[in-house]
């Protein structure tokens, strides 16, 4: 009953042919400004881009076969390359390689299909309700019951079955949606698993577990970092009673995929998947630094507005990201995490929690084929789990 | 959360903080955008965390500025959103007239308010989406009698058709104002001077507004 109604309303019909889209197929707003990427490229630029792609292809190898070895041999080169942005045509594949999701996929054949087809989820109605409210301005997700909406539903439903503790939480759809623009349903599902269960970096399921414990921890860490990196602004925020939950919850919960310009979100994700969540902190701090002189003058209400509507020049990846990379946070993040845990008594799962993930899969009593014990090697940014 | 003292150029007599709560998908964000910007979006994104908007309007002859916090409706988000109930003078508790479960959950929201909000918070029950007539699942009378039993004011709205949205906010703000000013509706005096509006500082959200509205926003281009 609910299901039918949920589908009946507030879903836009098929896209009108007259709508114009940007290069990422988001429907253009009126007077949409530049996307931070020039639309008409000179022949020179085009050639440079071709060279870049060839270089990337060589590093990756056929179907990603050479990737791991290259990363092991030249981690710093890879880091630098990724910070410059992964070529859009290779993004989906590289994301799967650096997140460790490719290995999860190979190790769990048939699992996704089983989750989608045979399992039922308590979150199905919640997911349906939000499907049309996820990237509603993107052509892929706009068509009611179209392939985009169906894929999004399948991925979210599969995850909610796979991890019943997390289930489905609003915000996950934006992660899944972003991924689906670059890879298949099954690939997107495993990347979500890799992120939330911690294939390479610390697990992020705490973003969505009851009580949103990781959101609370990140907000605590971020507030402290603001005070340390921009003391005057931190002081101003305190005086104006601004706290990060008012503006940064979305940054962490959706990893910038909710409201940031798409070209910037993609560039952040490139680096985030390789270097981990510290990148989210760096970008957040960089934004505040970039706008520091203006923010510091604003009173409460205007501050809130400004913190949710950053100007276009701040959102340019080539300006913001170098600034973000110059912000050092790793050591303090760890210390602040310990401080937070001490205050709140309790720890969240750490990176590479092998048993957790394994148990999660076994728990479903799905056929898991443990294999490829050679997939994990020292200094390898591939999964430390399931070997 | 008492805020900086009022400057000479303040443009309002009172500043009230109000929260929008209720199940996910009932139309809270569209009620907010309809009220503050007269906008409605069929294809709006789900709210993640909290959103914020303000509007200044005349209520009972006084200029009232209302700060509205719009919260994510999903239960899991209460871990973040319940912090915003503190200091709120009013709560608009929204359900969807086409979805019975969202009305059934009103009780849970009332409990949330009892647990986290100030005890004297003014609560208004709002049945939204009356434009979807053929899908109605909650009778007006049922909601009305429930509201009476619980001591809530009640109204049905359509953010899409802009029906009763203004009225709903007017009603709750009047009620808050009457409580704050401790005067019956009919006998309100002319508005006090701009600096004389705050009478019960401990319960009123007071925010300094920017004197110079033309001052540029963060790094404005």
Topology at a glance:
The complex is a heterodimer of chains A (387) and B (221).
Chain A: H1 2-8, H2 43-60, H3 67-73, H4 75-83, H5 91-99, H6 101-107, H7 111-117, H8 124-131, H9 139-142, H10 147-162, H11 172-180, H12 185-197, H13 213-229, H14 231-239, H15 249-253, H16 262-275, H17 278-290, H18 292-295, H19 300-308, H20 317-325, H21 330-344, H22 354-363
Chain B: E1 14-21, H1 28-37, E2 50-59, E3 62-71, H2 78-81, E4 90-96, H3 100-104, H4 106-116, E5 122-128, H5 140-150, E6 153-156, H6 165-181
Parallel strand pairs in B: 1-3, 1-4, 4-5, 5-6
Antiparallel strand pairs in B: 2-3
How would you portray this structure in words?
The complex is a heterodimer of chains A (about 375) and B (about 220). Chain A contains 22 helices and no strands. Chain A has about 375 residues and is an all-alpha fold. Among the domains of chain A are: about 1-30 and about 100-205, Orthogonal Bundle (Helicase, Ruva Protein, domain 3); about 205-345, Ypt/Rab-GAP domain of gyp1p, domain 3 (Cyclin A, domain 1). The longest helix of chain A is centred in the N-terminal third of the chain and has 18 residues, at about 45-60. Chain A is globular and about 55 Å long. Chain A starts with a helix and ends in a 24-residue tail after the last helix. By secondary structure, chain B is an alpha/beta fold. Chain B has one domain: Rossmann fold. Helix content of chain B is about 25%, strand content about 20%. Chain B has helices at about 30-35, 80, 100-105, 105-115, 140-150, 165-180; strands at about 15-20, 50-60, 60-70, 90-95, 120-130, 155. Chain B is globular, with a radius of gyration of 17 Å. The two termini of chain B are about 35 Å apart. The model of chain B is unreliable at about 1-10 and about 185-220 (pLDDT under 50).
């Amino acid at each position: 009953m609910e299901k039918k109604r949920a589908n009946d309303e507030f879903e836009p019909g098929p896209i009108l042919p007259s709508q114009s889209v940007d290069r990422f197929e988001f429907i253009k707003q009126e007077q949409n400004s530049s996307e931070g990427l020039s639309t008409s490229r000179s022949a020179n630029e085009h050639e440079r881009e071709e060279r870049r792609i060839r270089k990337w292809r060589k590093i990756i190898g056929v179907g990603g076969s050479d990737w791991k070895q290259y990363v092991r041999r030249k981690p710093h080169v890879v880091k630098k390359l990724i910070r410059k942005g992964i070529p859009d045509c290779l993004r989906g594949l590289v994301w799967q390689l650096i997140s460790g999701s490719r290995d999860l996929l190979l190790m769990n054949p048939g699992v996704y299909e089983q989750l989608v087809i045979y399992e039922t989820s308590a979150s199905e109605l919640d997911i349906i309700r939000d499907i049309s409210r996820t990237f509603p301005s993107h052509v892929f997700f706009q068509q009611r019951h179209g392939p985009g909406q169906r894929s999004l539903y399948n991925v979210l439903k599969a995850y909610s079955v796979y991890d019943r503790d997390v289930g489905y939480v609003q915000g996950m759809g934006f992660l899944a949606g972003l991924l689906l623009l670059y890879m298949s349903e099954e690939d997107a599902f495993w990347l979500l698993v890799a992120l939330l269960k911690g294939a390479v970096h610390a697990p992020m399921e705490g973003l969505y577990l009851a009580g949103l414990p990781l959101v609370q921890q990140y907000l605590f860490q971020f507030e402290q970092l603001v005070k340390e990196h921009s003391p005057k602004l931190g002081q101003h925020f305190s005086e104006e009673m601004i706290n990060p939950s008012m503006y940064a919850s979305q940054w962490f919960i959706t990893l910038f995929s909710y409201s940031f310009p798409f070209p910037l979100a993609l560039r952040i994700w490139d680096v985030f998947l390789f270097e981990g969540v510290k990148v989210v902190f760096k970008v957040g701090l960089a934004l505040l630094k970039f706008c520091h002189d203006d923010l510091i003058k604003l009173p409460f209400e205007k501050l809130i507005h400004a913190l949710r509507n950053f100007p276009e020049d701040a959102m340019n990846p080539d300006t913001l990201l170098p600034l973000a990379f110059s912000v050092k946070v790793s050591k303090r993040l760890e210390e602040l995490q310990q401080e937070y845990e001490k205050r709140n008594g309790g720890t969240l799962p750490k990176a590479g929690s092998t048993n957790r993930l394994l148990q999660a899969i076994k728990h479903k009593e799905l056929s898991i084929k443990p294999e490829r014990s050679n997939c994990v090697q020292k200094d390898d940014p591939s999964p430390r789990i399931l070997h | 959360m008492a805020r900086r003292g009022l400057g000479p150029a303040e443009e309002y007599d009172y500043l009230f903080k109000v929260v929008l709560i209720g199940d996910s998908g009932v139309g809270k964000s569209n009620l907010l955008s309809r009220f503050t910007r007269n906008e409605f979006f069929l294809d709006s994104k789900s709210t993640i965390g909290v959103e914020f908007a303000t509007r200044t309007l005349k209520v009972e002859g006084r200029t009232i500025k209302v700060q509205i916090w719009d919260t994510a409706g999903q239960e899991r988000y209460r871990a973040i959103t319940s912090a915003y109930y503190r200091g709120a003078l009013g709560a608009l508790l929204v359900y969807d007239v086409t979805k019975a479960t969202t009305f059934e959950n009103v009780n849970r929201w009332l409990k949330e308010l009892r647990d986290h909000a100030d005890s004297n918070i003014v609560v208004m029950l709002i049945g939204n989406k009356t434009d979807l007539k053929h899908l109605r699942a909650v009778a007006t009378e049922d909601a009305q009698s429930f509201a009476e039993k619980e001591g809530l004011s009640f109204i049905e709205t359509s953010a899409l058709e802009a029906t009763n949205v203004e009225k709903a906010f007017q009603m709750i703000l009047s009620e808050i104002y009457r409580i704050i000013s401790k005067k019956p509706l009919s006998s309100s005096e002319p508005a006090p001077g701009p600096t004389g509006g705050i009478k019960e500082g401990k319960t009123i959200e007071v925010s300094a507004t920017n004197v110079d509205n033309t001052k540029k926003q963060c790094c404005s281009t």
